[in-house]
Amino acid sequence: MISLVLTFAIAFAGVAIFEAFALPLPWLLGPISACLCAALVGFRMRGIKPLNEGMRTILGVAVGATFTPPLLLAMTGMWPTLMLIPVMVVCIGLVGVPYFQRLWGYDFATSYYSAMPGGLQDMLIFGEEAGGNPRSLSLIHATRVLVIVVALPFILQGFWNADLSNPPGAPANSIAPSQMLLMIACALVGWQGAKAIGMFGASILGPLIVAAACALAGLLHHRPPAEAIWAAQFFIGMGVGVKYTGITMAEVRRDMAAGLGFCVILIILTLIFVEAVYILELAPGMEALLAFAPGGQAELTVLALIVGADVAFVIAHHVLRIFVVILGAPLFARLFRQPQG
Prior knowledge:
The chain has 16 helices and no strands. By secondary structure, it is mainly α.
C-alpha cells in the first residue's frame, strides 16, 4: 500500500513539474519522467493493472469518435494526399525497423513499435503486448513526441504568435449526459467484446471500432472530455513509469540516443513528403506540415485550430495515419510474434 501511495505521489509530482514549466503532455510525460527519475535513484513502484487497462479504453473511444460522416465525406476530396499517408508509414517502417534492429540491436517487436508513428500511448500498449521492451518503447516514443511536439509550437509561435494553451477536449460539464453514457457503453462493450474474441489490443481496438461505428451512424458527436483524456494519460504514464523499476543509466542513454537519431530520420522523411505535396500544389505548406508531422493527433489538431489551418484536412490525415498504424498492429504482431517457450 505504501509503495502504491508513493507511486501516485511521484506521478502527480511529475505532472506538477511539467505544468509549472509549461512542458508538453504533462499528464502523460510528467508521470513517465518522474517515475524514471525515481527508479534511477532506487525507488520501487507499483500500479493498479485493471485500472490502467480500463483507462486505455478512453483512447480507443477518442480515436474512434473522430471518424464522423462529415470527415468521411471530406476525405473523398483529399485522396491525392491521403494516398501518401500509407506510403509514408511504409517508408518509415522500412527505414525505422532496420535502424532500430540492426544499428541498435533491439528485438523485432521493440524495433517495429518504436518505428511506427502511432500515438505514444497506443504504441506502448501494443508494443508491450507484442513482446517488446516497454522501457525502451516509452523512452524512444517520449523522445519523438518531445522533439516534434516541442519543435512545432516554437515554429507556430514564431510565425503566427499562437496561443498553445487549449485543452485536449471539451470539459465534462459541457457534454450531454446521454453522450457520456454512450461513450462509456462504447468503451465497455468494445473492450469486453474484443476481449471475448481474443482480439489483440482489445482495450483500445474494441472501443475504437464501436465508437467509430456510433460516430458514423450519427449517434456519437463528441470525443471523451478533457478530464477523461488527462486521466487516461496519467494512468498510462504511471503504468509505464512503474516498469522503470531497476532501470540503469546505460539503458536510458541508449534508448534516448536511438530516439534522437530516429527523430532526424522522421524529420527528413516528413520534409520530403511535405515538399512533394507543396511542389505538386496538393495543399498549402502549413496544412501539409501539420498533416504529415508524425506527432500526436490531438496535439496537432489543436495546433491546426490555433493557426487557422484547414482542420478537416489535418484531422483526416492523422486519423488515417492512426488507423493504418493501429489496425495494422495485430497483423504484424501475429506474423512476427515469437513462439512462447
